[in-house]
Amino acid sequence: MFKTVTIVCMLFFCFCLSAQQQENYVLKGQLVEKNTLRPVPFATVLVVNKKQGVATDNEGKFEFPVQLNDSIKITSIGYEPVTFSITASLMDTHPDGLFIQLEEGTYLLDSVVVTAFAKDFYLNRPERVPMDLGFVDPNAPKTDWSKPQMETLEQGGIGISGLLNFLDKKFMEKRKLNVLLAAQEKEKTQKEAVEAKFNKEFVKFVTRIDDRVIDEFMEFCNFYDIEILRASEYQLAQKVLNRYDAFLRR
After folding, report:
1. Using CA of residue 113, residue 144, residue 160, residue 139, what is the dihedral sign?
2. Mean predicted confidence (pLDDT) in 136-164
3. Helix (H) and strand (E) counts for the chain?
4. Residue among 99, 100, 106 at smallest CA distance from 78
5. Do residues 76 and 44 lie in contact, with contact meaning Cβ atoms separated by under 8 Å?
6. 2 sits in which H/E element
7. pLDDT tens for each residue of 27-80
């Protein structure tokens, strides 16, 4: 009987200890720049051991549930990362949330390429010749930055660099095609409008010309499309008669 009570007490003690270790908290706080104290929006607050996290809102604030001993990592482009662990002391001493100041980070580039743009670089881009500034690691693998590059992110997921250049090229190709199609449609509409005013029926009605030479006469008229479209029916008839008189006297 004594042994049974002892075992029950030990199990109860272990259960309480385990429950205490798994005690839930709500981690909340705000991220700001250290120098300006301006909020840092859209930063990543990640629970490393669970691979879960949230992004800060427009005011740099965040809030989500955590447990004791969770490892937290805060990252944002242009700032040094911040890491810490969830402890009872940390949560008890900051009941209103954490106020975290991020320091600006310094990042080294393996190379820099300067490219000159053409005056009309969207519609007529010449072949671009990059100018290398010289501080490139000769042993680094060569990367074709004209194509999108994929990489696995530390927080999970896949990032794609060089994607904007790829999308920009596709967008401009589509834009050129739309301009070409619009020009073709406008040309078709104008041609139909010209043929509706200046056609064989109209010419025969005005001149009574013989069918055997009507094609030759209409080519002889050689009117501009804009000349036909702007003329009234009477003015166009006068033009046809004048050209017909010249056609007979040639």
Report:
1. negative
2. 57
3. 7, 11
4. 106
5. yes
6. helix 2-21
7. 999 999 988 899 999 999 999 998 888 999 999 999 989 999 999 999 998 899
Asked if 41 and 59 count as a contact pair (C-beta separation under 8 A), the reply is: yes
**pTM, to two decimals:** 0.38
Tokens 């607050």: give the residue: 45
Average pLDDT over residues 122-137: 51
What is the overall mean pLDDT for the chain?
Answer: 78
Instruction: Output the CA angle 217-220-226, nearest 5 degrees.
Output: 110
Share of the chain above pLDDT 70, in %: 66
Instruction: Write phi, then psi, for 139 (nearest 5 degrees).
Output: -90, -5
d(CA 184, CA 232): 26
- C-beta separation of 192 from 228 below 8 A: no
Residue with tokens 């393996």: 110
Q: Is the dihedral angle over the CA atoms 245, 247, 249, 250 positive or is it negative?
A: positive
3-state secondary structure 167-215: HHHHHHHHHHHHHHHHHHHHHHHHHHHHHHHCCHHHHHHHHCCCCCCHH
Helix (H, G, I), strand (E, B) or coil at 105: coil
Token representation of residue 202: 């109209």
